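Regression check, magnesium ion case 159:
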Amino acid sequence: MRVGQGYDIHRLADGRPLVLGTLRLQADRGCEGHSDGDPVAHAVCDAILGALALGDMGVWFPSSDERWKDAPSSLFLVEIKKLVAERGAKLLNVDVTVVLAEPRLGGHLSAMREALADHLGCDHSRVSVKAKSGDGLGAAGRGEAIEAMAVALVETIED
Ligand code: MG
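Current build output:
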């Protein structure tokens, strides 16, 4: 079994949609980014890539490649699912913490877990998403950015 960690942070800006864990949420501001700027999905992707020692999203989905321009985060998750399957590996579980001042995510966490699990091709019981307010501290706590940290456990055949 192999463990991986992922981290992402995106700056918040006016006039951007807010997409977290592939879900479009009601908010005045959203994350800046080359794609839809979804730090939850991006941290999950990096955690799984890290578990397989396959680098990070920048390696697989370079922003210089038009294919990934404005790509929805669900597309990255599906590509990661394919990479895991191609290596005969299995995602055992993933756990994400997202830090944001607003909006409150409590009512969305269940749907977020299901959406992430659907794209990753696993049962939603294997996906955990937790939200913290940041208590007014740091860029995320002050509402300037949204930050996400993830860990993933992957079972591989060869070791
Ligand atoms: Mg990102």
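Comparison notes: Residues 8, 10, 33, 39, 42 surround magnesium ion (CB under 6 Å). The longest strand covers residues 2-14. No diff flagged against the previous build.
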